[in-house]
Write a structure and sequence with these properties.
Layout lengths: L5 H19 L5 H19 L5 H31 L3 H44 L5
Amino acid sequence: MIRLGVRAAIVAIGCVALAGGLIVGISDNPPGIALVYGALICLVLAVVYRWRRPKSFFLLFALSGLGFVVFAILHNVFYAIGESVDIVWVKALMEGLHVGAFLIAILLCPAGILVGSVGWIAALIRGRSESDPATV
């Protein structure tokens, strides 16, 4: 019998959801988009599975929000550079970078914001209930 840890199970669920989302397709397809978002949430959860401090979750929340803005701006900058350059390899590089920045801003950062905010609130509540003897 194969014994998997919780983290490996979360990663496996994320990979299956990602494969399902890509098979179904994400172009104007809400079920496919939901599967991809669910997969990325699972992958972020696998990374933060052992975190317990509210500060860690707050940093994930804040940096994901900042990352959304930064990668959205980078997407536009890379796109503008790619459109204004006539060198083929630079144009191809900028195309890849602007697509990558777009995907990070639209898919990964919202997953980090969601996991960070829910984890932050849960860690604050858990921290208060453990330190307050009246609630025990």
